[in-house]
Design a protein that fits this description.
The chain is α/β, with parallel strands linked by helices and 193 residues long. It contains six helices and nine strands; from the N terminus they run βββαβαβαβαβαββα. Helices cover 34% and strands 25% of the residues.
């Protein structure tokens, strides 16, 4: 493992459900010399397109079936333990983790959400922001706690919503900012690595 000024990088797992653009962004960030993290494990709840990046960058990955949620979390925890994971980054992960799971990783699970929290928690954030004629939306990196999208905010980035904005065009603009914000938030949490 690479060392940074005598300190090891933080062994990180990324949880995904979709295309994995934030995953690829985090992998590229993790490979930089001044990055405090190294990604050692990727978790998905389906055959997500984003698993392509696990293969491309030769990172261990596993698909977990969430049909039986109690048992699946034990299996995930077991895999995290085996891979000595100390930090979890949720990147478009569409399952809600249980309170018990979150408690075990208290303060060590981060998420990126496509709105300016506390506004628009949950799904369909872009449609809701446009429908309510908001002037701004954006993205938020926050710690995960037992309430949906309610953990302590680490960083946010505002994005202007224009009159003829569609949910798709807004999503694209915000995703660009997500790719800049997530690495900055990680550096903010681990400034000395």
């Amino acid at each position: 493992m690479k060392r940074l000024s005598g300190l090891k990088k933080i062994r990180t797992a990324v949880f995904i459900s979709g295309t994995g653009s934030n995953l690829e962004n985090l992998i590229k960030f993790s490979l930089k010399k001044k990055s405090p993290i190294c990604i050692k494990f990727i978790v998905s709840d389906n055959k997500a397109k984003g698993l392509f990046f696990a293969r491309k960058y030769k990172i261990k990955s596993k698909i977990f079936n969430f049909m039986n949620e109690d048992k699946v979390e034990y299996k995930i925890l077991d895999s995290l333990k085996k891979n000595k994971i100390n930090l979890i980054c949720l990147a478009g992960f569409m399952k809600i983790l249980s309170k018990d799971f979150i408690k075990l990783f208290d303060g060590k699970i981060m998420n990126i959400h496509p709105s300016l929290l506390p506004k628009y928690k949950g799904l369909n954030t872009h449609q809701r922001a446009i429908k309510n004629r908001e002037k701004y939306s954006g993205c938020t990196v926050h710690f995960v706690n037992s309430k949906l999208d309610s953990g302590r905010i680490i960083l946010q980035k505002k994005v202007r919503i224009y009159k003829k904005e569609s949910p798709e065009s807004l999503a694209k603009k915000i995703l660009k900012q997500e790719h800049l914000l997530y690495p900055r938030a990680i550096k903010k949490i681990f400034p000395n690595l």
